[in-house]
């Protein structure tokens, strides 16, 4: 592979890897919105929290794999508590209250990480099994980034199987369409809501661990990822998992090739695209809700 | 003849012994004063004190900066307070440090500065990271006729004809000095293909422009093979690094600071790109610890201060600081970031001693007297001679460049400062601001 081709193939791979990371964060956000109608502004904070848990697990003698297992579960457990003891209580007062509450949760998490982990940046290394490069048709590509791509694909596969092949998945899909009707059929919707919120925060947690070997863990990392995930969900369509996937991949590639060809305006390209999509399709590319 | 020889030998022996004893005494003296220094719980003096308002972010994502420099200020305050304080208005007064949280926002910086001036009635203001924040601080200080020591932000524009005010004194190096130091270093190096990768805001662009200009001056055959400016807090540097790989660059020039600096360095090493970075902020133990000995070898760092053991004062500071870190300090100051008094922190300590020395020589905290004393002042600091240029209040100083290697005496888990190239102050003297009438005289 000549140098120019290698560069373009490299950019495609980087775009895919970043897109998959975006998908991991955005999928939880869109799942929670689709099911509960809540725009969870604390979602990226859960992502950050999980990254901090990952750092702690490793500092306490664990390894990356244990962190990948434990940190998202702990994050999801906190998500469950937030849903059960905070969100559920104000559900009746409407979405504005829920929105404000999630902003409050976001601020609490932001301050909490500074109290418990300090203000320093933390970094963890790529796990030894995933360190180094892999040869893809002559292109030397970091193995860890390839792992991120396959991890996100595996999670997407599991989500699809869960949503389309299980009874609970059917209930959730029905709930996305009409939660009140599903509740009228005798389904315990508060419990379903709680499970969906847990699943959403778990997904954010997986993304938080996956990104930790690439990005320093510091109190501002939620801001870094939150806005991008939000744009992915808006463009893909609120509540649409397929939309989040397509949109995340598109923005990953847009980021890579934007930097390649239009570096000065690359950071704003995704926002320009969001404005265009919203102008012509206010529900997003695959969304059913405005 | 023989008698003369013995006499000379005796005198020399006494001299050496004297130096050793005084060195040991000095070290003990500093340790005696600092032994109970706890940066997490500093002693706050009461009564009639000299109040210094410390403007920096103490909350939000950049709160680390506040902590970083708070230890520097408290170090100096503790040391001088242990010596009885600073003689002003005919009596010894202790130094009190009061925080002003800028939250990294100009509006908050203005409020914090006003609260310190009007509420806490501070005598001097000291800060702040972020040139746009520091500018607000110096404007607010000038409005209330208070001395502001611009100790951290390095943009040349802070003291240009448009922004200069006589109440502000700029004690760190400047963007010009940083860029020129690195260009000077590469004048005698084999590398000549540079890729510029800086943060996309005024500082990044300004630094890159200056580096390109000075490179032309010192190394006319050098080539800029690529140039990119990434957003602050970039998550994924891989697309930029892919371009660097394809460009044939031999050096990446970057002015990135944390967290971009650490992410850029780490992601480059993880993607197999082991080019040296010519940098200013890739010198902290957190960043370097992540990439280890091999990943940090060959980095070229320019700084306004570099840890060394070349004279008794720096040896003393290093020894006492390190011993306290290893034995006494608690969170967050027991982390690897504070193992030694490094770069920006040591520089902040250095210039704060200068500031207090000026106050003592002025004999008062009256701004007009301080201005009179500080303008044109020369101070023999532990980081070389510092001179406050009278016309624009910018500090003229030597700067330092080093190529990291291993092993060093400072750290064993990454490469670090080895031989230090001193760039003399006459080479890196900051340009005199155009259009500033005071400098035309």
From TrEMBL, chain A:
A single GO molecular function term of this UniProt record: transmembrane transporter activity
Keyword annotations for this protein, in alphabetical order, are: Amino-acid transport, Cell membrane, Membrane, Transmembrane, Transmembrane helix, Transport
Residue ranges the record marks as coiled coil: none
Name the domain of life this protein comes from.
Bacteria
Give the bilayer topology: Multi-pass membrane protein
Q: Where in the cell is it found?
A: Cell membrane
Question: Where does this protein chiefly localize?
Answer: membrane
Q: Which GO terms describe its cellular component?
A: plasma membrane
**Residue spans crossing the bilayer:** 12-34, 41-58, 64-87, 99-117, 143-164, 191-218, 230-254, 261-280
The GO biological-process annotations, alphabetized, read as: amino acid transport
What does the sequence similarity comment in the record state about its family?
Belongs to the binding-protein-dependent transport system permease family. LivHM subfamily.
Recorded protein name is Inner-membrane translocator
**Protein's organism:** Desulfatibacillum aliphaticivorans
């Amino acid at each position: 592979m000549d140098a120019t081709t290698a560069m373009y193939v490299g950019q495609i791979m980087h775009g895919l890897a970043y897109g998959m990371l975006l998908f991991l964060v955005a999928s939880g956000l869109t799942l929670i919105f689709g099911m509960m109608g809540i725009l969870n502004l604390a979602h990226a904070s859960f992502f950050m929290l999980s990254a901090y848990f990952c750092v702690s697990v490793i500092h306490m003698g664990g390894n990356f794999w244990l962190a990948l297992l434990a940190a998202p579960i702990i994050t999801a457990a906190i998500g469950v508590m937030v849903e059960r003891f905070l969100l559920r209580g104000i559900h009746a007062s409407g979405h504005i209250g829920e929105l404000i509450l999630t902003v409050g949760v976001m601020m609490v998490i932001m301050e909490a990480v500074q109290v418990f982990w300090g203000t320093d940046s933390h970094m963890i290394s790529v796990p030894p099994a995933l360190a180094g490069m892999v040869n893809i048709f002559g292109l030397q590509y970091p193995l860890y980034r390839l792992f991120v791509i396959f991890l996100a694909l595996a999670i997407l596969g599991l989500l699809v199987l869960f949503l389309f092949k299980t009874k609970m998945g059917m209930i959730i899909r029905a709930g996305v369409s009409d939660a009140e009707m599903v509740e009228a059929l005798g389904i315990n919707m508060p419990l379903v809501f709680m499970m969906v919120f847990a699943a959403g925060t778990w997904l954010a947690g997986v993304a938080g661990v996956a990104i930790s070997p690439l990005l320093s863990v510091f109190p501002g990392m939620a801001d870094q990822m939150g806005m991008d995930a939000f744009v992915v969900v808006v463009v893909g369509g609120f509540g649409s998992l397929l939309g989040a996937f397509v949109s995340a991949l598109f923005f990953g590639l847009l980021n890579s090739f934007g930097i390649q060809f239009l570096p000065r305006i690359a950071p704003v390209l995704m926002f320009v695209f969001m404005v265009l999509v919203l102008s012509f399709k206010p529900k997003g590319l695959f969304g059913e809700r405005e | 003849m023989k008698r003369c020889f013995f006499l000379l030998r005796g005198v020399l022996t006494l001299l050496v012994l004297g130096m050793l004893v005084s060195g040991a005494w000095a070290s003990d003296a500093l340790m005696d004063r600092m032994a109970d220094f706890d940066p997490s719980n500093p002693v706050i003096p009461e009564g009639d004190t000299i109040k210094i308002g410390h403007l920096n972010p103490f909350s939000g994502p950049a709160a680390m900066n506040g902590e970083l420099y708070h230890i520097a200020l408290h170090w100096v305050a503790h040391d001088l307070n242990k010596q009885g304080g600073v003689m002003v208005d005919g009596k010894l007064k202790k130094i009190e440090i009061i925080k002003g949280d800028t939250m990294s926002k100009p509006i908050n910086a203005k409020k914090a500065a006003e609260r310190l001036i009007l509420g806490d009635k501070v005598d001097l203001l000291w800060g702040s990271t972020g040139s746009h924040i520091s500018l607000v601080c110096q404007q607010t200080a000038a409005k209330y006729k208070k001395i502001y020591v611009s100790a951290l932000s390095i943009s040349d524009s802070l003291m240009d004809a448009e922004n200069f005010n006589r109440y502000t004194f700029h004690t760190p190096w400047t963007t010009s000095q940083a860029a020129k130091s690195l260009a000077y270093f590469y004048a005698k190096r084999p590398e000549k293909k540079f890729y510029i990768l800086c943060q996309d805001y005024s500082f990044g662009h300004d630094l890159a422009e200056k580096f390109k200009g000075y490179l032309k001056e010192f190394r006319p055959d050098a080539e800029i093979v690529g140039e990119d400016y990434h957003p602050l807090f970039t998550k994924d540097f891989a697309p930029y690094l892919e371009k660097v790989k394809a460009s044939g660059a031999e050096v990446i020039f970057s002015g990135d600071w944390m967290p971009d600096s650490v992410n850029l360095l780490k992601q480059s090493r993880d993607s197999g790109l082991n080019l040296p970075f010519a940098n200013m902020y890739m010198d902290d133990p957190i960043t370097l610890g992540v990439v280890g000995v091999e990943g940090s070898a060959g980095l070229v760092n320019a700084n306004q201060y570099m840890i060394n053991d070349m004279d008794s004062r720096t040896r003393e500071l290093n020894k006492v600081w390190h011993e306290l870190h290893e034995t006494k300090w608690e969170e967050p100051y027991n982390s690897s970031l504070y193992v030694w008094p490094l770069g920006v922190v040591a520089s902040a300590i250095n210039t704060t001693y200068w500031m207090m020395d000026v106050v003592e020589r002025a004999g008062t905290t009256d701004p007009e007297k301080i201005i009179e004393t500080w303008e044109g002042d020369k101070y023999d600091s532990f980081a070389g001679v510092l001179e406050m240029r009278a016309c624009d209040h910018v500090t003229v100083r030597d700067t330092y460049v080093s190529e990291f290697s291993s092993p060093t005496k400072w750290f064993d888990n990454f490469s670090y400062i080895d031989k230090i190239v001193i760039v003399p102050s006459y080479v890196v003297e900051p340009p005199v601001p155009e259009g500033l009438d005071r400098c035309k005289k």
